RNA sequence: CGGGAUGUAGCGCAGCUUGGUAGCGUACUUCGCUUGGGACGAAGGGGUCGCAGGUUCAAAUCCUGUCAUCCCGACCA
């Protein structure tokens, strides 16, 4: 490709609406163009990158025994009603109506469709197991799209679905996919961590996420990991052992009684007022889960992990209650306490979820729904709560200990580029997707699903590999492998040599760009660095000695070689890294 | 949903306080000159100033409404 013909426009400045590195770089280097929030045109350079990632994914999925197909973007409401998700999926589902006023949606994921395809065709145990996948655009109307390609409303995804006879088959396929994913991300030049995670709206039991570890803001997830063993988990799923703490208040409170605690609106104020550690306070938080209030109880020095709390109730939407909603809840129970003095006592019309660690607390301090008062030296049995349930709803924090080996846990940011779920019969059962076994009995398929964000992977690669001058693509996913820069296109010798190398490399199957623009060398170098070609060959002043300059973008290393040697070396290096 | 900010040329911005029909940088076109890290000079093309009302002789500028975009937050009691 001649640079003069390449459809790309690099910018002098970063786009003003970009926050994270990948968004800034991809925008400035002319890879993407925004049409609407979270919706982008993939310009030719970007599209080349995406196709390369797709092909790596294809090769590895095929190698793992999966088969590619393509399902529709537009899906009818009926299938989503069968699975029960038409109501459940909420506003994130992009809905539309056809000319007959029938409800449709743009696919955010394809469990319903694939299950419907499978139940029509997979009738016999002889046909299983099967793993089917596709690569296409997905649509999710995110609350707040941001970070460029990292959280878009329209994005490219690979989704695969496996159908097995039983749990054992699923386990095997799950491992098979985990291995395939490792190879895929390695080939893309990305270091990933496979972490345990919550299975979220898609449902199911076991799931893992593949995280690209990054120190930038783009890492939206907290990942907890142990350096001494292989434990690692997303914050919505992580568990930990707590360090020792005072959780029995017997040395502070001789008896159970109501104390005046004026103006102690926060945990800090309360622990200061009573001169006790916050580990002796039971904190009561009001959440609204699927529009209904829920009270969460947790040791006051710890925080609630909202996804865990939501799952404990089986909800799909959670937020903390507003002060108006708390007032309403109080009034309904005949109290008028303000936040800071709320407690579980007497709250009969609302589910109460206590964190597991609350079981160990004794003689603690708790709000009793009277402003400026707390009950001290209390135990849960004193509070007479009928609607109480225990669950792990605690947010793990740095400084706590590994649940497997007891060593300290660490936290880091990660970008989720892939995930794998064991779905079990979550979809096959309600959608009556069954096979007939050898004895003529029917069983629902045991399913798994496996996703990779193709466009997000590309953005994560930029987050992982860049410098102040631009992107540093790894060879396997770079839009082109090498750029040849003749410093002065009016110099016949330079142009002749550059042109020859260009031809030679193309013959060898190398993807090469010849920067034939009548620009000063500085402009060409800046663009080459910004776009991030893995290799650059400069044909310039050293040509008098019969040499060209060979430079590696990722490492910065450079050397002078004859044009023939340079071509040879490029072919060798590039083939090795594909 | 709540709060804040911003909408002026492809991109980045000024002008608005104090109304007089639009400007800078970059990008684009042409010419000259230059050619190893975003040169220089000259001449050009490109904008119903987000949209709709209103005030006024006159509105990018003032008023009202509306739409859009970006950021933060969504209450840890």
Q: Identify the CATH architecture of the largest domain.
A: 2-Layer Sandwich
Counting helices, strands and paired strands, the structural category is alpha+beta
Q: What is the CATH topology descriptor of the largest domain?
A: BirA Bifunctional Protein, domain 2
Largest sheet: 9 strands, mixed
Whole-angstrom Rg: 29 Å
Number of domains: 3
Number of DSSP-assigned strands: 31
C-alpha geometry: globular
Poorly predicted spans: none
The CATH homology group name of the largest domain:
Bira Bifunctional Protein, Domain 2
Please estimate the helix content.
25-40%
The residue-averaged pLDDT reads: 92
How many helices? The count is 14
What does it look like?
- The protein is globular and about 95 Å long.
- The model has no long low-confidence stretch (mean pLDDT 92).
- Helix 1 packs across helix 11 (454-464), helix 2 packs antiparallel against helix 6 (167-187) and helix 2 crosses helix 11 (454-464).
- It is built from 14 helices and 31 strands.
- It folds into three domains: 44-220 and 414-463, BirA Bifunctional Protein, domain 2 (2-Layer Sandwich), CATH 3.30.930; 249-390, YbaK/aminoacyl-tRNA synthetase-associated domain (YbaK protein, Alpha-Beta Complex); 480-577, Anticodon-binding domain (Rossmann fold), CATH 3.40.50.
- The chain binds one RNA strand of 77 nucleotides through strand 14 and helix 13.
